[in-house]
Amino acid sequence: MDQERGNRKTLTGVVVSDKMDKTVVVRVERLVRHPVYHKTVKRRKKFKAHDQNNACGVGDKVLIIESRPLSRDKRWRIKEILEKAL
């Protein structure tokens, strides 16, 4: 799986749940400008990502990459763990 195919989206987020087998829930935060008030607002979204080796824990900062559908709502894979939680 080291060889990449095409341009796939990558996102950076924090693991908020690792209770499932080979699956983690990653919360991704982004900043957007409000269209009327022009204030910067935080938007959060949770993605389920495939963790083949069950290596991630809650609080880890991870890089996820887009992939084919792996289950009903799992469309992302863990590419690398950027920093481990304490």
UniProtKB/TrEMBL annotation:
<keyword id="KW-0689">Ribosomal protein</keyword>
<protein>
    <recommendedName>
        <fullName>Small ribosomal subunit protein uS17</fullName>
    </recommendedName>
</protein>
<comment type="subunit">
    <text>Part of the 30S ribosomal subunit.</text>
</comment>
<comment type="similarity">
    <text>Belongs to the universal ribosomal protein uS17 family.</text>
</comment>
<dbReference type="InterPro" id="IPR019979">
    <property type="entry name" value="Ribosomal_uS17_CS"/>
</dbReference>
<dbReference type="InterPro" id="IPR019984">
    <property type="entry name" value="Ribosomal_uS17_bact/chlr"/>
</dbReference>
<dbReference type="GO" id="GO:0006412">
    <property type="term" value="P:translation"/>
</dbReference>
<keyword id="KW-0687">Ribonucleoprotein</keyword>
<dbReference type="GO" id="GO:0003735">
    <property type="term" value="F:structural constituent of ribosome"/>
</dbReference>
<dbReference type="Pfam" id="PF00366">
    <property type="entry name" value="Ribosomal_S17"/>
</dbReference>
<dbReference type="InterPro" id="IPR012340">
    <property type="entry name" value="NA-bd_OB-fold"/>
</dbReference>
<keyword id="KW-0694">RNA-binding</keyword>
<comment type="function">
    <text>One of the primary rRNA binding proteins, it binds specifically to the 5'-end of 16S ribosomal RNA.</text>
</comment>
<dbReference type="GO" id="GO:0022627">
    <property type="term" value="C:cytosolic small ribosomal subunit"/>
</dbReference>
<dbReference type="GO" id="GO:0019843">
    <property type="term" value="F:rRNA binding"/>
</dbReference>
<keyword id="KW-0699">rRNA-binding</keyword>
<dbReference type="InterPro" id="IPR000266">
    <property type="entry name" value="Ribosomal_uS17"/>
</dbReference>
